[in-house]
Amino acid sequence: MRRLHLFLSILLVVPLTLFGQNPDQTIRGRIADIETNTGLQGAVVTILTLNTPLSAITDSFGEFTMEKIPVGRYKITVAHLGYKEEIIQDLLVTSGKEVVLEFLLTPSFGLLEAAVVSNKISKELPINKSAFVSARSFSVEETSRYAGGLNDPARMVTAFAGVSGGDMQDNALTIRGNSPSSLTWRIEGVNVHAPNHFSGGKVAGGGFVTILSSQLVGDSDFFTGAFPAEYGNALGGVFDIRMRTGNNRKWEHTVNLSSIGIDIASEGPFLRSSDASYLFNYRYSTMGLLTKTKIVKEEQIPVFQDLSFKISLPAKGAGNFTIWGLWGKGDLKEPFDKDSLSWKTQNDRIGFDWINSVGSFGVNHRIYKNRTSLFTSLSITECADKFDFERLDEAIIERPYLNIKESDRRLTFSHRITSKIGSRLELKTGFNLTSLYYNGDISSNSIINDHSTYSNVLNAKERTYYGEFHGGLQYTLGNNLVVNAGIHSNYFDLNRKFSIEPRAGIKWNISEDHSLSFGYGRHSRIEPLKLYFVEQNNDLSLTKSDHYTLSYNWLISENVRVKTELYLQNLSDAPGIADSSYSLINYKQEYAFRDALINNSKGRNKGIEFTLERFLNDNFYYLITTSLFRSRYQGGDGVWRNTRFDKGAIINILAGKDFPMMMSKNILSVNIRASYSGGERIAPLNVEQSIEKKEAVFDNSRAFEARYPADVFADISVSYRVNRGKVSSLFYAQVKNVLGTKTRRGQIFNIQANRIEEDAFTVVVPLIGYKIEF
């Protein structure tokens, strides 16, 4: 305890001892050709918003350094003869960490080699230049800036058009009416299990919070449909996360203390004489301080921890090696209530212990030779769960209710080649070969309240293979028209199923401020592995999707844009039950599959999305998104119905303002968010059977005819950054759900009152913290 007090005292005293120092920082980086990654000598980097503009010229390696830049926000331009100019608006410079930038410049076509082409701000464009529709990039600053994001990328992207989030206890994402399980995560170029604490426990594809700290997230992409040919095994969306590379010249550290735990990060060079660097982050969290908010019960306190790292090892002519990894583990317990007189619902007699772990590790190599980029990776990802649910019978004796012990491990070898052929044609090819291992032992009651029906559902230890292959071409016609076309194919060895998926896109820059794009993609995805190992389900085909998107983008001014997208998605070959309304199109979570499934259901999602966005400029930004859509499906009974996720409309309004203080040395930041989402659909209750069985019984012949009330949420965050010497401190507070909107978990039968009631409660999440960078 004495050491902890000393540590906290140092964190608070260090900034004060440096009060008198004038805060400034170094901005440095590298400018390279986007096609060859060759450093560009003679590029001009200019800071425009200083009292007197300051410029630097890159050396023979394409590197530049600007020292003693006062803290604040700056507009930076990069120009080189024969390339399009790049612009960064409102770059934040603090006293705690160097700003390390990398610009990949795009050659201009049809112009003299000596021309510098002005390029409007392209903040809205994805990093992957093959994505023309339904994609955008996001930065680590956005992850921490948006109110209600809780520094979680998955919660942050719910502000984007077409995306609906989970409740206060879950970060699951529903994209354009698709199930949260249809989202694929990619980290450092390889597919991984959803990197969430308590992953998939409540909703498959979701969790409580991502295990990857915002300290490690670099500029990344998020896709909501019609993905380019290189992305596979996804129907609804793709998270393409890139981890930052650590500072290779200076050791820097971050400590973050908050109401949910401690977060420690460090980065720097291995040796002063080497370009190799490391970056790591460790978090330990206990929700004990949040029991009063009702986000967790006092007797149900989750504890979790995670570790993430990236090691960069440049090898000069041999390319660049990176070693990366992330791991998280959580434990959640709820004891029995042995006082039977206090039981209001059947759930009150259930106790459980849940241990969840998820992790990924990889070794990557990238090399550029003769206008060709080669990427090779060997990675492993695993998600493991141990559930023990016990139920008290009438004699207050513990009976097994649901017991799960399973792990899903995947070993993947990936190889991709990107080649530039001439000045206008680009070729991308590659493959992923994955060995899948599943080990599961699942037992449960087939009738919830009948202990005599407890039996083994699945006992499997299996191995299979999954292969993905892709190839695509992109051709640039002048500066105004780009087209691409490609093929993605999948092979699932377990059932010998093969899929060929065409992809195509076109982008027309009508003028400097207007562009029109179209994208098409056929996509497929394998289902959760445990489903296939129920004996009668091992011959299921892949679920397929055809996604069409038309996009219009208007840059109203240098900092404001409007975007509209129309989309249509047709789902086919989705697993369902014969002569039933059941379909995996509506899948949220099922711990124990028992039924025989066949590929007999299909679905259709269609809608329109609007985005009005002002990028951060002059210390102010806003983002307004509206999504209007329908989501329908046809089950094995041949009836078209609304899907579970047919919410109808989603509206988000975000805004934020920075207030420079103390001669612009410090920054007070205020951010707000309001959102509206139509309610999730459910089957109506069968009241008579519910009263008879003393539990909620739903009329599945009328699946998803009822719905929950719409959700209206509001969030706010306030932070104050103090820059002193070479230390930057951040005091912050966030409140999620300031309106106290209810979290609805379903409908339950109240045994004492002998009636059906809504299972709902109010969760207001406060997050208070202090971060120091030095």
What does this structure look like?
The chain is mostly beta strands. The protein folds into two domains: about 100 residues, Carboxypeptidase-like, regulatory domain (Immunoglobulin-like), CATH 2.60.40.1120; about 650 residues, TonB-dependent receptor, beta-barrel domain (Maltoporin, Chain A, Beta Barrel), CATH 2.40.170. Helices cover about 5% and strands about 55% of the residues. A hairpin with a 4-residue loop joins strand 28 and strand 29. The longest helix is centred in the first third of the chain and has 16 residues. It is globular.
Q: Strands, helices and their partners?
A:
Elements: H1 2-17, E1 24-33, E2 44-47, E3 54-57, E4 63-70, E5 72-79, E6 86-93, E7 99-105, E8 135-138, H2 140-145, H3 153-156, E9 163-165, E10 173-175, E11 183-187, E12 190-192, E13 220-223, E14 237-241, E15 252-258, E16 261-269, E17 277-286, E18 303-314, E19 320-334, E20 350-369, E21 372-392, E22 398-421, E23 425-445, E24 454-477, E25 481-492, E26 497-509, E27 514-525, H4 529-532, E28 543-555, E29 560-576, E30 598-617, E31 620-634, E32 640-642, E33 649-661, E34 666-677, E35 681-682, H5 687-693, E36 706-707, E37 711-724, E38 727-736, E39 742-750, E40 755-762, E41 765-773
Parallel strand pairs: 1-7, 11-14
Antiparallel strand pairs: 1-4, 2-3, 2-5, 5-6, 8-13, 9-10, 11-12, 13-14, 15-16, 15-41, 16-17, 17-18, 18-19, 19-20, 20-21, 21-22, 22-23, 23-24, 24-25, 25-26, 26-27, 27-28, 28-29, 29-30, 30-31, 31-32, 31-33, 33-34, 34-37, 35-36, 37-38, 38-41, 39-40
